[in-house]
């Protein structure tokens, strides 16, 4: 069975969503383009956590920056499976949603 992993990352508190959500609009990548309260920063989501987007950000780089073991997880980008071999060349766009799963074993 696969379940989303929780993040043990350093997320800037200014990017946390609260009940007064930032504006949401459709992005060309099929995800949601979110702007934060600091003046329109563009974000990506990693396991439902908003993070700053930057040009050239790959799925592999985002995983590495947030201590996700690339060889021990499965990923989905905007709800579609993203194979391990494609992560380094898959550039994220504002509003993309990357979900990380790890296998749970045992009974």
From TrEMBL:
Gene3D superfamilies per record: 3.10.20.30
Region (Disordered): 1-40
NCBIfam families reported in the protein's UniProt record: thiS
Domain of life of the source: Bacteria
Any Pfam family hit: ThiS
Segments of skewed composition (Polar residues): 1-11
Protein name: Thiamine biosynthesis protein ThiS
SUPFAM superfamilies (alphabetical): MoaD/ThiS (SSF54285)
Cleavable signal peptide: none
């Amino acid at each position: 069975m696969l379940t989303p992993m929780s993040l043990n990352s350093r997320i800037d508190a200014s990017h946390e969503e609260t009940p007064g959500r930032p504006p949401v609009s459709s992005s060309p990548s099929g995800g949601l383009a979110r702007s934060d309260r600091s003046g329109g920063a563009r974000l990506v989501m990693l396991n439902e956590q908003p993070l700053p987007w930057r040009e050239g950000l790959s799925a592999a780089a985002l995983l590495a920056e947030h201590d996700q073991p690339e060889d021990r997880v499965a990923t989905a980008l905007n709800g579609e499976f993203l194979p391990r071999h494609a992560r380094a060349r898959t550039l994220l766009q504002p509003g993309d949603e990357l979900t990380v799963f790890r296998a749970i074993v045992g009974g």
